[in-house]
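User: Earlier you gave me the apo prediction for this protein. Now I'd like the version with pyridoxal-5'-phosphate bound, so I can compare the two side by side. Same sequence as before, with the ligand SMILES added.
Assistant: Got it. Here's the input I'm using:
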Amino acid sequence: MRPIDLRSDTVTQPSPEMRAAMGSAEVGDDVLERDPTLARLEERVADLLGMEAALWVPSGCMGNLIGLMLHLLRGDRFLAPAQAHVLGSELGTGAWLAGGMPEALAWEGGPGRPTPAQVTRAAGSPGPYYTLRTTLLCLENTHNFAGGTVTSAAEHQALVAAAKAAGLAVHLDGARLWHAAAALGAPLAALTEGVDTVQVCLSKGLGAPMGSLLCGTKPALAEARRLRKMLGGGVRQGGVMGAAGLVALDYLPRIAEDHAKTRRLAEGLRGFGIPAPQPETNILLVPVPDARAAVGALEAAGVRTLPVGPAIRFIAHRDLAMADIEEALRRIEPLARHLGG
Ligand SMILES: Cc1ncc(COP(=O)(O)O)c(C=O)c1O
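And here is the structure of the complex with pyridoxal-5'-phosphate:
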């Protein structure tokens, strides 16, 4: 039985056009000078996001880490919504390598979202030299572990305004910013307004085998380029990956199809009495009595998922058709009791 892989939108295979584009990419040495294909990708993404410049990095974790390193001095505190990827899923690099002291903000603005008032309160006001200093707000849109939840442009702007009024820089983890923009029907640039840096991933939902872009001002990115090299992320003929990224961007107009697949999955599960919430994007978190047992039972039935705390996570993506979602539902139905049905 062919497994239906709903573990993540990172499990996609590069498409034949993507592999062909990688094979014929025009390349140069991106450490010595600039690789022409990476340069094209960087310009295209900077334009899409309404940012001055972009820098390709191998992974989302590296893009976030460089963002944090740009903004933090050792011992500075940074704020992020509870369960943000930078807090719990990047192996403590925000503290270890960027020197920051993390502070999680509870979701008082809705799932995955703090309120502007919380940002103001947590930032505090500058004290004497011997007090802890807070210098950065790190946002995440969509918020992965809240279930792919979306921050609207208006909420985003209010959060950024609160951060700026308190003297904080803002970094946005936009690993799935594409999904937020598609869900809102908003331009990507409306969701980056006011940020100092933003990181977006080409390997989540868009089908690229690797690659993220860190965007910001030209001077910030000149420093980011140095940091990328220090962290071992300077690549030579990176255009092979850049070409994959350019093809990946062609999927942007179709992202909403993945949201529709996820909604169909949730609706089907609810039909079996399983308490699946209404997904906002391509991520569905279903709270279950025993997440590991549920994941095991689904795996044995040919449906691959991941445990996330007390829930199991389903993510739809471009390599699954609506027919695969229907087939997944057929496989899940006899197991509904494992999912609280
Ligand atoms: C919200 C978010 N940020 C950052 C990352 C890190 O990306 P990468 O796995 O490319 O390092 C992920 C990965 O899933 C993510 O979901």
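For your comparison, keep in mind: The chain has a mean pLDDT of 97.
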